[in-house]
Design a protein that fits this description.
Chain A: This is DNA polymerase delta subunit 3. Chain A: Its main location: cytoplasm. Chain A: Keywords: Cytoplasm, DNA damage, DNA excision, DNA repair, DNA replication, Nucleus. The complex is a heterodimer of chains A (about 450) and B (about 210). Chain A has about 450 residues and is of the alpha+beta class. Chain A has a domain of about 120 residues: 50s Ribosomal Protein L17, Chain: A. Chain A is about 40% helix and about 15% strand. Chain A is built from 19 helices and six strands. In chain A, the strands form two sheets. A four-stranded antiparallel sheet of chain A has the order 1-4-2-3. In chain A, strands 5-6 form a two-stranded antiparallel sheet. The longest helix of chain A has 18 residues. The N and C termini of chain A lie far apart (about 60 Å). Chain B is an alpha+beta fold. Chain B has one domain: Cell Cycle, Spindle Assembly Checkpoint Protein, Chain A. In chain B, the strands form three sheets. Chain B has a five-stranded antiparallel sheet. In chain B, α1 runs antiparallel to α2 and α1 runs parallel beside α3. The N and C termini of chain B lie far apart (about 55 Å). Chains A and B meet through α5 and α18 of A and β2, β3, α2 and α3 of B.
């Protein structure tokens, strides 16, 4: 094979000062992603061997199994080169390591990595996984007739349990229906996995499922997780792939992922997306929603929802978690009765409905619900010395689902330089500073900003 | 479709809004990338569908907002030629100047429905270029501060001095030492051309930053 690609990469990296990610390279040169990864690797080797003056930085994608808080999880991270060995050492088993990007600049955070891929993927939206290693033959967009049929069926309240997360989806159950109509191949594959009951086996099942049914959404999960690196658990991931409806539904269940050390709960998302394909979306959506509340409260929780293959277990889990927000819900404003708009209705046969009607009402994520949730809020105040202190803390606030926007959901320490929060800009209500006039007069000394940090 | 002239102030305001939003994001990003302030005060936010770093220090944010609020009327009337973010060391000698050269075509014509998304794409590319500019620039000495200068055409600032756009936020004529830098290297970063706006971003860097 000719080495022209090395010159190409050299031009991109050195002359144009671009960040070359493997995905961008594969879309630009029209090669399979694995080829692109190898190209980057060879380029890096060559440049390092030459010991040329130009300094190159690289980032790597590491994925493997690790144990966090007692439960095993599959962790996928994009790490800088200097942290690569440390991250690999932390993992029990490293499954894959490959070059993620090559660039001249030493990136302070991972936002430019996402920015690089954004336009390239956007241009090739319809076939952005043409060169991808992850594919699912069954994941095809629905034809217009199928879509119409699904929409007609959606208007009739279904008999099966189907709670769609309308507050979280952009389209409501119109999308949930099509995904329920996925070809039987996936259902059959998933149904066969349902047999396992124990936690351990479910772990293996998930990894198997991950491998077998490595649907498009997994690749999308990478892009979506990059697409929403800071987005909330159920943030509207409508940035890129609004076209493909089934995929959209799957995407919406992406776990919140962080940046340089991204924890993409792959098995969790793939599991959940598969459950979504099944008719038991309701449980998952409710379980996920409760989880989202919980993840907002706690820091990165390891995968706890396992063994959701078993209906009963998932229902039990849901029941357990439903109890938690109940004390809060009593403080809420009047909760309107769930309107059955786009076919969202909890059917009565469900046992849980009878047991906990209130919480189930909550779970029917209808269009307008008032709920309490814990929100990361910045609180700025003047302390004894007169310095401004901004503290971030979790505050319980009530909100209505119709105005659900991507919420920051990470730890409340603002000493860490890498933030996981990713929300729209909020207008902060604070008093006007009295210092601002002095800052514009050039001869006088600018007030030090370190006062901001000394009081913590 | 419509060909609007500068008299159609609504459109001029739209362009000014877009530009001021972009400049705010760009200034925050420059402060982050060039380590003018510690990274702890920055927080990830979303703009143009990509993550950007914005500060959450109230004074700093207010200062930047007030600055741009005063610049906006100049942009509306197309009197602002350059907006410069100057990074100065402890002795107030400039070490880097990020120059945004702005020009607007006299006849703004909207002839495409995808105009705004195209502009968004271009601004995204500018943001990306700022993020990687540390590859072509030397490190700054510690303890740097920044300021924003505006170069205007003709004598537009005469009015500004008479009428304070924001109370207690006066603009004064800049010192020579901040406007001109000795031994400057010019490093172009990005150019963007669109129907409503042309912008060029380059960095003037002092050869020896101590």
């Amino acid at each position: 094979m000719d080495d022209l690609y090395l010159d190409n990469i050299d031009e991109f990296v050195n002359d144009q000062n671009k960040i070359v990610t493997y995905k961008w390279l594969s879309l630009t040169l029209g090669v399979h992603v694995n080829t692109a990864k190898q190209m980057l690797y060879h380029y890096l080797q060559q440049k390092r061997n030459e010991s040329s003056r130009t300094l190159l930085h690289a980032t790597y994608l590491v994925s493997g199994k690790c144990v966090e808080n007692g439960s095993t999880c599959h962790k996928v991270s994009v790490v800088r080169e200097d942290k690569l060995d440390a991250v690999k050492a932390k993992m029990d088993m490293t499954i894959s390591v490959h070059v993620y990007s090559v660039q001249r600049a030493e990136l302070k955070d991972s936002s430019p990595l996402y920015n690089t891929d954004y336009d390239a993927v956007k241009e090739n939206l319809k076939n952005c996984n043409k060169y991808s290693a992850i594919s699912c033959a069954a994941a095809v967009p629905m034809s217009s007739t199928e879509l119409q049929r699904a929409q007609e069926m959606a208007s009739v309240p279904p008999v099966e349990k189907e709670i769609s997360k309308t507050g979280l989806n952009e389209n409501t159950s119109a999308t949930s229906k099509p995904s329920a109509k996925q070809p039987a191949g996936i259902m059959g594959m998933f149904a066969s996995k349902n047999a396992s009951k124990s936690q351990e086996s479910s772990m293996e099942v998930k990894t198997e499922q991950k491998d077998d049914s490595s649907l498009v959404e997994t690749s999308k999960s990478k892009t979506a997780s990059k697409a929403n690196p800071m987005s909330n658990f159920f943030g509207k991931s409508a940035q890129k792939k609004a076209d493909e409806k089934p995929n959209k539904n799957i995407k919406e269940e992406k776990a919140a992922s962080s940046t340089a050390i991204a924890i993409i709960k792959k098995s969790q998302t793939s599991l959940k997306s598969e459950i979504d394909i099944k008719d038991e979306q309701s449980k998952v959506s409710s379980a996920l929603k409760i989880e989202s509340k919980d993840t907002q409260n706690k820091t990165k929780r390891p995968e706890v929802v396992d063994s959701d293959d078993e209906k009963m277990e998932s229902q039990q889990k849901k029941r357990r978690r439903i109890k938690k927000p109940q004390p809060d819900s009593s403080d809420d404003e009047v909760v309107p009765d769930s309107p059955p708009v786009p076919n969202v209705q909890t059917p009565s046969p469900k046992k849980e409905v009878n047991r906990e009607p209130v919480s189930n009402q909550e779970e029917n994520s209808e269009v307008k619900r008032r709920k309490r949730r814990r929100v990361l809020k910045s609180n700025t105040f003047v302390d004894e010395d007169g310095s401004f202190v901004t503290e971030k803390g979790y505050v319980s606030e009530s909100y209505s689902e119709s105005e659900d926007k991507p919420e920051p959901n990470s730890q409340a320490k603002d000493s860490s330089s890498l933030k996981h929060s990713f929300g729209k800009r909020e207008k902060e209500k604070k008093e006007k500073s009295q210092k601002k006039t002095s800052t514009t007069n050039k001869p006088t000394k600018q007030p030090s900003i370190m006062g901001f940090f000394q009081k913590k | 479709m419509a060909t609007l002239t500068r008299q159609d102030l609504n459109f001029g305001q739209v362009v000014a809004d877009i530009l001021c939003e972009f400049l705010e994001v760009a200034i925050h990003l420059i402060l982050y990338v060039r380590d003018v302030y510690p990274s702890g005060i920055f927080q990830k936010r979303k703009k143009y569908n990509v993550p950007v770093q914005m500060s959450c220090h109230p004074d700093l944010n207010q200062y930047i907002q007030d600055t741009l609020h005063c610049v906006k009327p100049l942009i509306e009337k197309n009197e602002a030629e350059k907006v410069v973010v100057v990074i100065m060391d402890k002795e107030h000698h400039p070490v880097e100047r990020f120059v945004f050269e702005i020009s607007q075509p006299p006849l703004l014509s909207i002839n495409s429905e995808t105009l705004l998304s195209h502009v968004e794409q271009l601004l995204r590319a500018m943001i990306l270029k700022i993020s990687v500019c540390d590859a072509v620039l030397d490190n700054n000495p510690p303890g740097c501060t920044f300021t924003v200068l505006v170069h205007t055409r003709e004598a537009a600032t005469k009015n500004m001095e008479k009428v304070q756009v924001i109370k207690d936020f006066p603009w004064i004529v800049a010192d020579e030492q901040e406007v001109h830098m000795e031994e400057a290297k010019l490093i172009p970063l990005k150019t963007m051309t669109s129907d409503i706006l042309k912008m060029q971003l380059y960095v003037e860097e002092k050869t020896q930053k101590t």
